[in-house]
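Trying the structure run again after the queue cleared.
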Amino acid sequence: MPQSGTYHFYIAYAGSSPVAPGIAAVDPATGRIRATANRPAVRSLTTCPNSQKLYEIGGTGNFAVLNVEDLRVSNEYVFSQRAQMRWQAASPSSDGQQLFFLDSGGGVTVVSAADPDELTRELKPTKLSTRTTLAVTPDGKRFYTGSAAMASNRASVPDVLALGPAENDQSNPLPIATATTTAYQVNVLLSPDSATLYAWIANSTDPMVAIDTATMTITARGAGRAPSAVAVHPDGSLYTVDRDRGGIILAPATLSETGTFPCAPDSAAILAFGPDGKLCVAQANRTCIVVDTATGQASGPARLTGQPAAAVAAAPTLLPQREEPKYVAEFKREGWTYHPREDGGIQRNDFATPAGTQVSQPGRTITGQYRWVANDLIWRPFGPLGESKYFYSITDWDGRSYQGREILVDGDDLTWY
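Done. Tokens:
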């Protein structure tokens, strides 16, 4: 883990055409975004103890190693072909010598960090079940996984399972919530001393639970709805985000509320602590802040390009400070992008742009009277009887979508700052 003052937060964010997914480096001192790099959609992001590398699991289940100094890939592996299952999560050992991968069937594969093609061992549960989250003890000898399920007519029981260190060494599945037919994912997180495992289904009516890892029994239950996100402070306290109330601090032993911290209510927040106790809060509205938990003060919000998917603290990037983007508007609702036709029409592109997507200073403006032709997905010129429309060319989106054509947005879909 990096020392205080010598790290950055890294936030993986999703893309939404025509904006590419990527990773943003955030300065904990200012809360500003220092640099960004385009990356494929990320499912899981973690770091090794020397903090010079980022490990990511992509949306396709592939694994990549990134150097923090330039956010470039140093190695990339297609492990899913060997496992015949997609990788769901990754975690390094405390000495940085090994990497642990969770596959979608609940098995854990251990490989060498120096050469991930070098398989060390594999641990398989006695019964395959869908599992998507992983927590590993610092010595790399005990693994905890959370179950997951798609919506189904057949109810399943959300649970956690402990594996290792020996082959076929596992606990009985421990139910942590009531049986359900709805989709769910059990999230798992270890306390700093690994004595307690926290498990929860984001935003569920079933509360978060604390589990004694020595006996695999539940020792405490939270009050009310489970949080959307949880992170463990270096002192062991739990910082959580409630979808209705925002930032809430919980006692680690009892899960009772002890305080609050600056954070807007959110059902899909992402949290990450730095070694000095500063907290990165990335929210579904594509903003992030850094909270100084010692003072309770938060930085002003910085704008992310897409919705956050994962965050971690690691050594600082050496990329130069980027110029702060000058956003002038955002999509007030889900909308579409367009491109101009040679006949003067405005053709709709074949992808939607989510609400909240930011728009930089437009280039040229196309204005006129148009009629919408739904069958052709075209705004056609229609003289004085047409609807008055304004379309704006977004120059920094050129070439990112629709065969490199100029990209237009409909002014009626925008809220101007």
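The first strand starts at residue 8 and ends at 13. Worth checking whether this holds up in the mutant runs.
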